[in-house]
Predict the structure of UDP-N-acetylglucosamine 2-epimerase (non-hydrolyzing).
Amino acid sequence: IKNLIIFGTRPEAIKMAPLVKAFEVKQNSFETKVCITAQHREMLDQVLDFFEIKPDFDLDLMKANQNLFSLTSDIINTLKPVLEEFQPDYVYVHGDTTTTMAASIAAFYSGAKVCHIEAGLRTFDKRSPFPEEMNRSVAGRIADYHFCPTETSKNNLLNENIDSKNILVTGNTVIDALKYSNEKVNSKNFNDREIDSLKAILDAKKQLVLVTGHRRENHGQGFINICNALKQIAEENEDVQIIYPVHLNPKVQKPVYNILKDVPNISLIDPLSYPSFIWLMSQSYIIITDSGGVQEEAPSLGKPVLVMRDTTERPEAVEAGTVLLVGTNTDKIVFEANRLLEDNQFYTKMCMLHNPYGDGMACKRIVEFIKKL
Ligand code: UDP
């Protein structure tokens, strides 16, 4: 059986890496190749190095001032010879990026069966100014097999009349990645300069609040509100240390550096490589973020999360109570952060909740499913 695993951005690489590993273990029955579009370049390569994955095909499509029109057509056009050369039986795509959508179309044209990992997430706003909902819906329409992180995502697909025999609830592969990574970064012979420099700025006597933010919907007033909240949290809680790896987008950098650069107990740092980020998460007391992946990872490390979004395609976490949705309202962010920092009982209860996103066995389930086809 020939597998082609295609991805292009950092979060996709993190969530597909354990699948590549899982197929490698079963190498006797599978020939598995990896193709990267490199829709993101540097951050993707760091993840591949950490997981010791060498792509077989590198389309190297990252360009300055990328736009969705050229990116979509470049992905389809450059995948054509790859698909013709390797002739995979199964093509694996992940999530909701332009790579996901365009690679599904190319795989469909080639006649391969399309497998969608992290299938069935929906916000139901296809007219949103951002393409993710359409990307994941198109991939879902094309896919032959759907690997869903949760029952909620499976139900979304059943509501779109997808046959239940082609859907498998696996948990999210991000937890498989986290298990591998957490073990590796905490093993004795793992040395990392970035982690050493983090250790140097960490104040062991303080409660660590880790912050990340990148979503386009929060650009503008959203980030100004978020920064004002962080400033207030830092000023009201002397025994708190905020560490914020700031996304490189100028629309994020500008408000963050303007408002927060001189606040004494806030450290603004460059974005972290995946292993350092996992390590820093494991050291934190609470996490404030608008990232999808971080919401899924944090409960497995027992860390409460405040999510700076108004809507979410991850309602399971809100239902399970592992995250609190705070939007970008300054008062709400400050209120919930202070509650977690001050109310020990509330904090402890949140740390003990079960992670609705899985148990780290998702990739094993996917491999077994494909073996039985
Ligand atoms: N992450 C990282 N370095 C950072 C911030 C996040 O490696 O400085 C990782 C994090 O562990 C998670 C993933 O990147 O697995 C989330 O990516 P991002 O927030 O960019 O995207 P989203 O999950 O919102 O699509």
Remarks:
- The longest helix spans residues 68-86.
- The two ends are 10 Å apart (CA to CA).
- The domain at 181-351 is CATH 3.40.50.2000 (Rossmann fold).
